[in-house]
UniProtKB/TrEMBL annotation:
Function: Acts on the D-isomers of alanine, leucine, aspartate, glutamate, aminobutyrate, norvaline and asparagine. The enzyme transfers an amino group from a substrate D-amino acid to the pyridoxal phosphate cofactor to form pyridoxamine and an alpha-keto acid in the first half-reaction.
Co-factor(s): pyridoxal 5'-phosphate
Name of the gene this protein is made from: dat
Self-association state and partner proteins as the record states: Homodimer.
Protein name (record): D-alanine aminotransferase
Signal peptide coordinates: none
Length: 280
Protein backbone atom coordinates (compact mmCIF):
# COMPACT_ATOMS: atom_id res chain seq x y z
CA UNK A 1 0.00 0.00 0.00
CA UNK A 2 1.37 3.43 -0.85
CA UNK A 3 0.57 7.04 -1.56
CA UNK A 4 1.51 9.70 -4.10
CA UNK A 5 1.52 13.41 -3.29
CA UNK A 6 3.44 16.51 -4.47
CA UNK A 7 5.03 14.53 -7.27
CA UNK A 8 6.42 11.65 -5.22
CA UNK A 9 5.53 8.18 -4.05
CA UNK A 10 5.42 7.92 -0.26
CA UNK A 11 4.60 5.75 2.70
CA UNK A 12 0.81 5.79 3.04
CA UNK A 13 1.09 7.05 6.64
CA UNK A 14 3.51 9.91 5.91
CA UNK A 15 2.13 13.33 6.91
CA UNK A 16 2.35 15.37 3.71
CA UNK A 17 -0.75 17.58 3.42
CA UNK A 18 0.04 21.21 4.33
CA UNK A 19 -2.46 22.90 6.65
CA UNK A 20 -3.45 25.32 3.84
CA UNK A 21 -4.35 22.55 1.38
CA UNK A 22 -7.81 23.43 0.08
CA UNK A 23 -8.89 19.81 0.04
CA UNK A 24 -8.15 19.68 3.74
CA UNK A 25 -9.73 23.05 4.60
CA UNK A 26 -12.71 23.30 2.24
CA UNK A 27 -13.16 19.92 0.60
CA UNK A 28 -12.37 22.01 -2.50
CA UNK A 29 -11.69 19.24 -4.95
CA UNK A 30 -12.86 16.14 -6.78
CA UNK A 31 -11.95 12.46 -6.69
CA UNK A 32 -12.20 9.09 -8.39
CA UNK A 33 -12.13 5.56 -7.12
CA UNK A 34 -10.93 2.80 -9.44
CA UNK A 35 -10.77 -0.93 -8.87
CA UNK A 36 -7.85 -2.94 -10.23
CA UNK A 37 -8.71 -6.53 -11.17
CA UNK A 38 -5.78 -8.84 -11.96
CA UNK A 39 -3.44 -5.98 -12.82
CA UNK A 40 -5.96 -4.05 -14.94
CA UNK A 41 -7.58 -0.80 -13.73
CA UNK A 42 -11.20 -1.56 -14.71
CA UNK A 43 -12.98 0.99 -16.93
CA UNK A 44 -10.09 3.43 -16.46
CA UNK A 45 -11.05 5.58 -19.45
CA UNK A 46 -14.54 6.11 -18.08
CA UNK A 47 -13.17 7.01 -14.65
CA UNK A 48 -10.67 9.47 -16.13
CA UNK A 49 -13.41 10.98 -18.34
CA UNK A 50 -15.51 11.53 -15.22
CA UNK A 51 -12.55 12.98 -13.29
CA UNK A 52 -12.00 15.49 -16.10
CA UNK A 53 -15.73 16.37 -16.15
CA UNK A 54 -15.85 16.82 -12.37
CA UNK A 55 -12.72 19.01 -12.31
CA UNK A 56 -13.99 21.15 -15.19
CA UNK A 57 -17.36 21.62 -13.49
CA UNK A 58 -15.67 23.30 -10.50
CA UNK A 59 -13.03 25.16 -12.60
CA UNK A 60 -10.02 23.10 -11.55
CA UNK A 61 -7.35 22.49 -14.16
CA UNK A 62 -5.83 19.03 -13.69
CA UNK A 63 -2.12 19.35 -12.80
CA UNK A 64 -1.15 16.42 -15.05
CA UNK A 65 -2.16 15.22 -18.49
CA UNK A 66 -4.28 12.11 -18.89
CA UNK A 67 -1.24 10.13 -20.05
CA UNK A 68 0.82 11.37 -17.08
CA UNK A 69 -1.96 10.33 -14.70
CA UNK A 70 -2.12 6.88 -16.32
CA UNK A 71 1.66 6.59 -15.93
CA UNK A 72 1.38 7.48 -12.22
CA UNK A 73 -1.39 4.87 -11.79
CA UNK A 74 0.74 2.21 -13.47
CA UNK A 75 3.81 3.15 -11.42
CA UNK A 76 1.69 2.90 -8.26
CA UNK A 77 0.53 -0.58 -9.31
CA UNK A 78 4.10 -1.64 -10.04
CA UNK A 79 5.60 -0.22 -6.83
CA UNK A 80 2.83 -1.65 -4.64
CA UNK A 81 3.02 -5.04 -6.42
CA UNK A 82 -0.74 -5.31 -5.84
CA UNK A 83 -2.57 -7.21 -8.58
CA UNK A 84 -6.00 -6.49 -7.09
CA UNK A 85 -6.33 -3.05 -5.57
CA UNK A 86 -8.39 0.03 -4.79
CA UNK A 87 -7.00 3.24 -6.28
CA UNK A 88 -8.17 6.57 -4.86
CA UNK A 89 -7.36 9.70 -6.87
CA UNK A 90 -7.97 13.20 -5.52
CA UNK A 91 -7.42 16.58 -7.14
CA UNK A 92 -7.75 19.74 -5.07
CA UNK A 93 -7.51 23.43 -5.92
CA UNK A 94 -4.07 23.57 -4.34
CA UNK A 95 -2.24 25.13 -1.42
CA UNK A 96 -2.77 28.79 -0.45
CA UNK A 97 -3.60 30.82 2.69
CA UNK A 98 -7.24 30.24 3.60
CA UNK A 99 -9.61 32.37 1.51
CA UNK A 100 -12.89 31.43 -0.16
CA UNK A 101 -11.78 32.99 -3.48
CA UNK A 102 -9.84 30.73 -5.85
CA UNK A 103 -6.05 31.17 -5.51
CA UNK A 104 -3.78 31.34 -8.55
CA UNK A 105 -1.81 28.21 -7.70
CA UNK A 106 -1.50 24.79 -9.32
CA UNK A 107 -3.97 22.02 -8.43
CA UNK A 108 -2.66 19.18 -6.25
CA UNK A 109 -2.89 15.50 -7.12
CA UNK A 110 -3.03 12.84 -4.41
CA UNK A 111 -3.35 9.10 -4.94
CA UNK A 112 -3.40 6.00 -2.78
CA UNK A 113 -3.29 2.34 -3.70
CA UNK A 114 -4.51 -0.26 -1.21
CA UNK A 115 -5.68 -3.82 -0.89
CA UNK A 116 -9.26 -3.94 -2.21
CA UNK A 117 -12.01 -3.55 0.32
CA UNK A 118 -13.90 -6.84 0.26
CA UNK A 119 -17.64 -7.30 0.65
CA UNK A 120 -18.51 -10.53 2.49
CA UNK A 121 -19.86 -13.26 0.19
CA UNK A 122 -22.88 -13.54 2.48
CA UNK A 123 -23.99 -10.02 1.48
CA UNK A 124 -24.09 -11.07 -2.19
CA UNK A 125 -26.08 -14.20 -1.36
CA UNK A 126 -28.54 -12.81 1.15
CA UNK A 127 -28.71 -9.19 0.02
CA UNK A 128 -28.39 -6.14 2.24
CA UNK A 129 -30.77 -4.16 4.42
CA UNK A 130 -31.32 -0.56 3.32
CA UNK A 131 -32.97 2.52 4.83
CA UNK A 132 -34.80 5.24 2.91
CA UNK A 133 -33.66 8.72 3.93
CA UNK A 134 -34.23 12.27 2.71
CA UNK A 135 -31.58 13.32 0.17
CA UNK A 136 -30.16 16.47 1.77
CA UNK A 137 -27.39 17.05 -0.76
CA UNK A 138 -26.88 19.96 -3.17
CA UNK A 139 -28.09 20.38 -6.76
CA UNK A 140 -24.89 19.16 -8.50
CA UNK A 141 -24.47 15.57 -7.39
CA UNK A 142 -23.15 14.62 -10.86
CA UNK A 143 -19.84 16.14 -9.73
CA UNK A 144 -17.73 13.66 -7.75
CA UNK A 145 -16.84 16.32 -5.19
CA UNK A 146 -14.91 15.81 -1.96
CA UNK A 147 -17.84 17.29 -0.01
CA UNK A 148 -19.39 14.07 1.26
CA UNK A 149 -20.80 15.13 4.61
CA UNK A 150 -24.48 14.48 3.74
CA UNK A 151 -23.48 11.08 2.31
CA UNK A 152 -21.57 10.22 5.49
CA UNK A 153 -24.45 11.28 7.73
CA UNK A 154 -26.89 9.18 5.70
CA UNK A 155 -24.68 6.08 5.67
CA UNK A 156 -24.08 6.42 9.42
CA UNK A 157 -27.81 6.85 10.13
CA UNK A 158 -28.49 3.70 8.08
CA UNK A 159 -25.74 1.79 9.90
CA UNK A 160 -27.17 2.80 13.29
CA UNK A 161 -30.34 0.96 12.25
CA UNK A 162 -28.48 -2.13 11.09
CA UNK A 163 -28.57 -1.19 7.39
CA UNK A 164 -25.65 -1.36 4.95
CA UNK A 165 -26.82 1.46 2.68
CA UNK A 166 -29.00 4.56 2.79
CA UNK A 167 -31.21 4.99 -0.27
CA UNK A 168 -31.85 8.70 -0.78
CA UNK A 169 -35.18 10.27 -1.73
CA UNK A 170 -35.55 13.76 -3.18
CA UNK A 171 -38.92 15.39 -3.98
CA UNK A 172 -40.64 12.02 -3.66
CA UNK A 173 -38.31 10.05 -5.93
CA UNK A 174 -35.30 7.78 -5.38
CA UNK A 175 -32.05 9.48 -6.38
CA UNK A 176 -29.28 7.04 -5.44
CA UNK A 177 -27.53 5.37 -2.51
CA UNK A 178 -25.13 7.28 -0.23
CA UNK A 179 -22.28 5.67 -2.21
CA UNK A 180 -24.06 3.68 -4.92
CA UNK A 181 -26.63 3.77 -7.70
CA UNK A 182 -29.99 2.02 -7.36
CA UNK A 183 -31.68 -0.40 -9.79
CA UNK A 184 -35.02 -2.21 -9.66
CA UNK A 185 -36.59 -4.97 -11.73
CA UNK A 186 -40.34 -5.12 -12.24
CA UNK A 187 -41.96 -7.56 -14.69
CA UNK A 188 -38.53 -8.23 -16.27
CA UNK A 189 -37.92 -4.54 -17.00
CA UNK A 190 -34.80 -2.94 -15.51
CA UNK A 191 -35.37 0.49 -13.94
CA UNK A 192 -32.81 3.00 -12.74
CA UNK A 193 -32.82 6.71 -11.94
CA UNK A 194 -31.87 8.82 -14.99
CA UNK A 195 -28.35 10.27 -14.88
CA UNK A 196 -29.26 13.93 -14.37
CA UNK A 197 -27.43 16.49 -12.22
CA UNK A 198 -29.15 14.95 -9.18
CA UNK A 199 -27.05 11.77 -9.13
CA UNK A 200 -23.52 10.60 -9.78
CA UNK A 201 -23.42 8.87 -13.13
CA UNK A 202 -21.85 5.65 -11.85
CA UNK A 203 -19.30 3.81 -13.95
CA UNK A 204 -20.71 0.51 -12.64
CA UNK A 205 -24.20 1.79 -13.55
CA UNK A 206 -23.01 2.39 -17.13
CA UNK A 207 -21.40 -1.06 -17.35
CA UNK A 208 -24.49 -2.77 -15.92
CA UNK A 209 -26.76 -0.95 -18.39
CA UNK A 210 -24.53 -2.22 -21.21
CA UNK A 211 -24.69 -5.76 -19.78
CA UNK A 212 -28.49 -5.47 -19.76
CA UNK A 213 -28.50 -4.28 -23.35
CA UNK A 214 -26.36 -7.24 -24.41
CA UNK A 215 -28.85 -9.59 -22.76
CA UNK A 216 -31.79 -7.84 -24.42
CA UNK A 217 -33.23 -6.84 -21.06
CA UNK A 218 -35.61 -3.90 -21.38
CA UNK A 219 -34.25 -0.75 -19.73
CA UNK A 220 -36.12 2.27 -18.40
CA UNK A 221 -34.09 5.16 -17.04
CA UNK A 222 -36.97 6.59 -15.11
CA UNK A 223 -37.63 8.10 -11.69
CA UNK A 224 -38.85 5.61 -9.09
CA UNK A 225 -40.99 6.30 -6.03
CA UNK A 226 -40.26 4.63 -2.68
CA UNK A 227 -43.43 2.52 -3.02
CA UNK A 228 -42.39 1.37 -6.51
CA UNK A 229 -39.03 0.25 -5.11
CA UNK A 230 -40.65 -1.58 -2.20
CA UNK A 231 -43.00 -3.33 -4.59
CA UNK A 232 -40.25 -4.34 -7.07
CA UNK A 233 -39.40 -7.95 -7.96
CA UNK A 234 -35.69 -7.31 -7.40
CA UNK A 235 -33.60 -4.36 -6.23
CA UNK A 236 -29.81 -4.01 -6.30
CA UNK A 237 -27.21 -1.29 -5.82
CA UNK A 238 -24.03 -0.74 -7.82
CA UNK A 239 -20.64 0.82 -7.17
CA UNK A 240 -17.03 0.33 -8.12
CA UNK A 241 -16.24 -1.25 -4.78
CA UNK A 242 -19.22 -3.63 -4.45
CA UNK A 243 -20.11 -4.25 -8.11
CA UNK A 244 -23.76 -5.41 -7.99
CA UNK A 245 -25.16 -6.04 -4.52
CA UNK A 246 -28.74 -7.28 -4.02
CA UNK A 247 -31.08 -5.50 -1.61
CA UNK A 248 -33.16 -7.80 0.59
CA UNK A 249 -34.95 -5.19 2.68
CA UNK A 250 -36.03 -1.55 2.27
CA UNK A 251 -37.08 -0.02 5.60
CA UNK A 252 -39.37 -2.74 7.00
CA UNK A 253 -40.26 -4.27 3.63
CA UNK A 254 -38.68 -7.58 2.68
CA UNK A 255 -38.07 -8.23 -1.02
CA UNK A 256 -38.34 -11.58 -2.81
CA UNK A 257 -35.26 -13.81 -2.47
CA UNK A 258 -35.50 -15.12 -6.06
CA UNK A 259 -33.43 -12.69 -8.13
CA UNK A 260 -32.89 -14.11 -11.63
CA UNK A 261 -32.19 -10.80 -13.39
CA UNK A 262 -29.76 -9.60 -10.69
CA UNK A 263 -27.91 -12.93 -10.88
CA UNK A 264 -27.65 -12.76 -14.69
CA UNK A 265 -26.40 -9.16 -14.63
CA UNK A 266 -23.92 -9.85 -11.83
CA UNK A 267 -22.50 -12.71 -13.87
CA UNK A 268 -22.21 -10.55 -17.00
CA UNK A 269 -20.54 -7.78 -14.96
CA UNK A 270 -18.03 -10.20 -13.45
CA UNK A 271 -17.06 -11.31 -16.96
CA UNK A 272 -16.29 -7.67 -17.74
CA UNK A 273 -14.15 -7.15 -14.65
CA UNK A 274 -12.40 -10.47 -15.33
CA UNK A 275 -10.95 -8.63 -18.27
CA UNK A 276 -12.19 -9.05 -21.76
CA UNK A 277 -10.04 -6.45 -23.53
CA UNK A 278 -13.03 -4.92 -25.29
CA UNK A 279 -14.36 -3.52 -22.02
CA UNK A 280 -11.23 -1.88 -20.63
N1 LIG B 1 -23.33 7.46 -6.29
C1 LIG B 1 -22.54 7.94 -5.31
C2 LIG B 1 -23.03 9.06 -4.48
C3 LIG B 1 -21.27 7.37 -5.08
O1 LIG B 1 -20.47 7.84 -4.12
C4 LIG B 1 -20.87 6.26 -5.87
C5 LIG B 1 -19.55 5.58 -5.61
N2 LIG B 1 -18.48 6.31 -6.13
C6 LIG B 1 -21.72 5.80 -6.89
C7 LIG B 1 -22.95 6.42 -7.06
C8 LIG B 1 -21.31 4.66 -7.78
O2 LIG B 1 -20.39 5.10 -8.75
P1 LIG B 1 -19.33 4.12 -9.41
O3 LIG B 1 -20.10 2.98 -9.98
O4 LIG B 1 -18.68 4.96 -10.46
O5 LIG B 1 -18.39 3.70 -8.34
Amino acid sequence: ELAYYAGEFRDINEAVIPIDERGHQFGDGVYEFIRVYKGVPFSIERHLDRLERSAKAIFIELPVSRQELKDIIHQAMEKSTLKDADIYIQVTRGIAPRNHLFPDVPAQLALTIRHPRQTPEEAYEKGIFTLLLEDERWANCYIKSLNLLPNLLAKQAAASKGCKEAILVKDGYITEGSSSNVFAIKDNVLFTTPATRKILSGITRANVLECAQEQAIQIREQNMTPSFLKDADEVFITSTSVGLLPVSKIDEVELPTFRPVTVALKHAYSLRTAGTKAYQ
